[in-house]
Amino acid sequence: MELAGIVGKPNTGKSTLFSAMTLVPVQIANYPFTTIKPNVGITHLRIECVCKEFGVKDNPKNSLCINGVRLVPIQVIDCPGIVKDAHLGKGLGLQFLDEIRQASALIVVCDAAGATDADGRPVEPGTHDPLEDVKIVEEELIFWIAGIIEKDWGRICRAVENKQSTLVEELSNKLSGLGIIPSHIEQTLQSLGLNPYAPSKFAKQDIFKLAMELRALSKPIIVAANKVDVEGAEKGVERLRSAGYRVIPCSAEAERILRIAAEKGLVQYIPGDTSFKVLDPSKLTPQQKRALDMIETHVFARWGSTGVQQLINTAYLEVLGYIPVYPVEDAERLSDKDGNVLPDVYLLPKGSTARDLAYKIHSELGKGFLYAIDVRTKLRLGEKHQLKSGDVISIVATTKRG
Ligand SMILES: Nc1nc2c(ncn2[C@@H]2O[C@H](COP(=O)(O)OP(=O)(O)O)[C@@H](O)[C@H]2O)c(=O)[nH]1
Ligand SMILES: [Mg+2]
C-alpha cells in the first residue's frame, strides 16, 4: 500500500488533518482498515468507479465503493512537528522521519491564515508568513536526507577511491529504503557535475545539493494550506502558490466535523464532495447547526470543498501521476475466481505495462505472462502495452495463481 507522510511545524493542524483523513467515511461492518497506531492510519484516494459504466454491482476487496465512488486505501503517518534546525536536534529532532522513509509523497501542512509563529505559538492572523514555514520544513527534509548520505561517509570515500565499490552502489544501498533508485543517483551526480570517483573532494554544500535533488525526486511535496476557514487565509494561499509550490487550500477541522456528522447520520457527505446535505435539520443541536453553517459559509462557499480529499487525490493522481487499473480474472463477469465483481484496484506508476500489472498481482503471473485482455475492447494486449487510467484488465498466463 502507498504511504503518505504528514509533516510540518507544530500547531499547523497535522493531527487534525490525520484524524479527519483516517475517519472511516461510512460505517461498514467488519471494515478492515482502522487506525493502526496512534499516528498511523488509513485514508483513501477517491476515484470514479468503473462499475457504473459497466452497469454492474461490484464487491470490492482491496478498496471500497460507495454509490460509484471507489475509495482506494493509502496509509498515512502523522509526524511530530518540525522546527528550524531540527537536524541539529532542536525540538524533537528528525529521528522520527525514519518512519516515513518509504513514503511516496509528503504533505507539508502550514497555517495559511498566518496565525502561528515559527515555533507554533498562536499569534494575530496574518502576522506570520506561511511560506517561511514550508521553506524551513523543506530544508529540514533535505538535511535529513543529507544526514543519511553523510553517515559513514569516510568509509564510503575510502571504498570508492580504493575501487572496492562505486559511489552509485554505495549510495543506492543507503537510499533504496527512501525509494531512490541507482539511475536517480547517477543522473543527479552528473547534473550537479560531481565526480563520482572522488567523493572525498565533495564539499558539505555538494552533499546538500545532492540531497536537495534526491528529495525532490523521491519525496514530492504537496502543501496543505490549512485553516482556510480563517479570515485572510487567501493571502497566505497566494503567497505559497507564487513560490511555485503545489498548494491545496484546506480546512482539516471542517473535514473532521463533516466526517463525524456523516458517521452520526446527520449529514450526507462523502469525502471530496463539493457540498454536504443536512439530512434532518430538526436533529441538530444549536451548536451543531452553527458549526455546519460556518463550514458552509467559510469553507464551501469560498473554497468549493474542504480540500482534504483533494490533497490525496492531487498527490497520487497528479503529482505522482499514478493510474488506477482494475485487474479481473474472468473477463466476461469482471470478477475474480470467487465471483467478486471488480474486486481490486491497483495504483500503478504512469507508463506501467500489462506485464508490470501481472507482476504486481503475483510474481508467478508476471513470469508466466502470455497476454492481457482489455475487458472494454476485448482486444489482446502484449506485455509491453502501456496501461491507462481506468483500464479493466484480465491477465492470461501459463501458470495460474493460487
Ligand atoms: N481554524 C482552524 N483551526 C484548525 C484547523 N485545523 C486545526 N486547527 C487548530 O489548530 C490547532 C493545532 O492543531 P493540531 O492538529 O493539534 O496541530 P499539529 O500540532 O500540527 O498536530 C488546534 O487548535 C486545532 O483545532 C482548521 O482547519 N481550521
Ligand atoms: Mg500533532
Task: Please explain how this structure is put together.
With 402 residues, the chain is an alpha/beta fold. The protein folds into 3 domains: 237 residues, Rossmann fold (3-Layer(aba) Sandwich); 63 residues, no CATH class; 72 residues, Ubiquitin-like (UB roll) (Roll). It is 35% helix and 18% strand. It is built from 13 helices and 14 strands. The strands form 3 sheets. Strands 1, 2, 3, 4, 5, 6 and 7 form a 7-stranded mixed beta sheet that branches. The chain has a 5-stranded mixed beta sheet with strand order 11-10-14-12-13. Strands 8-9 form a two-stranded antiparallel ribbon. α6 packs across α7. 41% of the residues are buried. The mean pLDDT is 94. The structure holds guanosine-5'-diphosphate and magnesium ion (MG). The site of magnesium ion has 2 residues, from α1.
The description of the largest β-sheet is: 7 strands, mixed
* Rg computed from alpha carbons, rounded to a whole number of angstroms: 23 Å
What is the terminal-to-terminal distance?
21 Å
Shape: flat
CATH topology heading of the largest domain: Rossmann fold
